[in-house]
Structure formats: structure tokens, C-alpha cells
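Format notes (please read before filing issues)

Several people have asked whether sequences and C-alpha cells are stored in separate files. They are not. Every record keeps both together, in the order shown below: the sequence lines, then the C-alpha cell lines. Line labels are part of the format and must not be stripped during preprocessing.
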Amino acid sequence: MALKLRVSLYMAFAASILTVLVGAFNTIALTAILYRTLVSLVLFAVLGYACGQFAERFLQEKQETLEEADLKGTNVDIVSSDEPEAEELPIPEFTPLNPENFDNITITQK
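Then the structure lines:
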């Protein structure tokens, strides 16, 4: 079934149920409930059909633009190397800042 018909039927069904429930809770006459239910059913069926038509057209345009998009890129081959890793560099010794090593500090001003 087309999207627009499904949206139309769901909206009309939900609106008519809500109309019947509100009419029953407010103790409205049965003929008024039936009349209002019929009006809301037709009104929301037409409104749902229009919304479904819009959604179907919008989704179709999006699908066409996705199909037309050039998905050009670079092919990258991922290969694991069997070579042993290079030797790790030794960790330099940490020397805290003290009055004897102020000579190693360079000052730059902007």
C-alpha cells in the first residue's frame, strides 16, 4: 500500500477514535457524535493523504539525490605488516626544575 494511503488511513482512524472518545466523555447526543466522527474521518483522511503525498515526494527526491551522488574516494588497502617493530627509544631521565639547571631554560617574548 502506498505511503500516502497508509498515512491517510492512520490519521483518519486516530482522529475518529479520539472524536468518539471525547464525545462519549462529554455526554453528547449519539447523532452529534456520529456526525462529528464522520466529519473528522473525512477531513483527516484528506489531510493525511496530502501529508502522505508530500512525504512520498520528499522521500523520492532524497532517494534520487542519493543515487545520483558521486561517491568518489580513494581506495585504501589495509595490510598488516609482518615486520618487527622498530626498537623503542629510551625514556629520557626526568630532572625536576631546581636552581642549578636554570641555564637550560630559554625565554622568548612576543
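For reference, the curators noted about this record: The mean pLDDT is 79. The longest helix spans residues 30-68.
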